Batch of 4 targets.
Target 1
Amino acid sequence: MIMSDNFIDASSASHPDSVLRLSSAVHRFAIPFINPKDQISFETSFNTCSKNHSNTIAAMQQADNRRREIKAAMASGKVIHTSLSTSLKEYIPVVNQILLSCKFQPEVARLDKHLVFSWSSGIEYNKYNKSKEFSDSEALMFELVLSIATYALSESNIGCDSCVDGDFPKASRQFAKAAGIFQYLG
């Protein structure tokens, strides 16, 4: 607090963490999940069109590796959002690169094996409804959008963890990051 000539500047008063805890509420959102039975492989599916291009093969392998990491992070009993977020942050640009390659060079985007992406939205799964409904799509855009949405929700959940830990500045940065990602999707 700043005091001068009997004037107290209340705007500079720091708020105790207990007041912040009383005035804030956070909700942890369920994240979308990749179907654990989903066994797709970008490298196998794009084998013919990528076999003569080392950069393309490396991108396909990277996409497969990141997707396996994402599935592993989702499959564990308790999702560790920092690991999931890191894997998604590395996966999304690779999927976007594959999507753009298919868009601008459709003649070389021939699949040897169908890519069928299978996700649950995460919304319908709760303590009362233990079953997950999976939606399937062959569209790379489906994979990209659900990956971005999962990334945003994961960042939001990292913010929830920071809030619970009492690190409100970090929580606000995470919530702002998640909001920016959702704004991008909108």
Target 2
Amino acid sequence: PFTSEPHDGALVYTFYLALGHLAAALGLPIPVMYHLARICAGLFLLLVAYQFITRFFDRVRARRAAFLLLGFSSGLGWLAAPLGLFTA
């Protein structure tokens, strides 16, 4: 979409366009809407991941262990944020 050459139009970034329209309709600032969508998407990912885990583990304890491993697999760097460490 970033060219000066003539070409047919294309509908790109539709998810973000929809978020912008929803933010305008609700009267929310764009950054707030972005973070709300990010949180909702993260929760949806965790729900789907748990459903995926249930396909492989029968015991509830094993499911919980796998879910916790998945939930914290991105690291614990977020714990340093309140202390002001590792910020750019």
Target 3
Amino acid sequence: VLDRDWLGMIKLGGNIYYTSKIGATLGHSFQYIAGKMCGMSQEDYAEMMINGGRSPESNRSLSGKY
């Protein structure tokens, strides 16, 4: 939490709702946090979502089970 590792919090079992609340107390929008978790700027994340989101290929499980 102190490092503001948004994706790390989720990987450790954190809840996205509470993670976004922590971000909001710091003045960050959910869009900002989601962009950081995706490794992109808030603007690039917004543009990706406006254009339909991620492609299905980038959402597939690396293990191929899902």
Target 4
Amino acid sequence: MFQAKIVRNDDNELTYRTTDPPRDVHVKMLQENIDTLEKVFNYVAKTYTSKRCLGTRQILSEEDEVQQNGRVFKKYNLGDYKWKTFTEAERTAANFGRGLRELGQKPRENIVIFAETRAEWMIAAHGCFKQAMPIVTVYATLGDDGVAHCITETEVTTVITSHDLLPKFKTLLDKCPLVKTIIYIEDQLQKTETTGFKEGVKILPFNQVVKTGQDSKFEHVPPKGDDIAIIMYTSGSTGTPKGVLLSHKNCIATMKGFVDMVPIYPDDVLIGFLPLAHVFELVAESVCLMTGVPIGYSTPLTLIDTSSKIKRGCKGDATVLKPTCMTSVPLILDRISKGINDKVNSGSAFKKSLFKFLYQYKVKWVQRGYKTPLIDK
């Protein structure tokens, strides 16, 4: 329960502020003068060094699986998570940022990230922040006209995308005449086709840009708190996508409010799968980084054992990662609930009764502010 007091009350505004003191993470951000997202990554790299930071599930193979109705679906055979430490993630981001400079990208020039939620997304964003480059976030599910609008309105010359989304640019580039460079995040299994694109546009793999930055002499260009960090485009569900300008201070202020309201601990593990193009997921993951919480990436198609891309007998991402916290939306929660209930209901009467008892027990103690370590095992 939080208490608040009125700090402003007039004809135009009624403002409340919590009377509770700021939590430890908030205080640490003040003590370290962290007023930009660039400073967040610098701080955590020095503080958490060899701790797990960003994790990616390894895809061993993609196989055909025949369903009961005779249809054949493509399914993933997945391995364990492969991790970058905080130091490795920061170093990769720094090299990526310098690699962008080598390609001709300048500080304070916008750069689009049009890709699915993944470790490379976060690394690319922080690489841009290290060179004071605002990122333009575009939903990976946005239609071609919406993507073209976001790119042309922000006058970008460089786009960061993924193996799966790259083919869109064979037609999109005609609508985006300023784009000269496309950087794609490689697929784990398939080689990316880079022919058939508009002449004069460079198509480069993500890791090549990182490698280029390793030998670069460019220095970091730290942004200021009032500099624009993100131009965050809406999903376009109510019309043309609209770009929202977020300064570094905006993002840091939101992070401080988040850590004061939601307790997160260094021994937590976050599973990240919602769009990083939305401020909800981006701030949640930024808070986890600031707190030293490892982030293992997933997708709605591989999240749980019964997800549509999981091969029969293979474990979903959540089962392997064992996260203690996650962001979500009602649709995903419904899928998770259905998956759990289907598995429980397929068991014996004793197992169903035991699950119900333990679930109610855990809910009772969590609501009182306690942990249940024995059940959590």
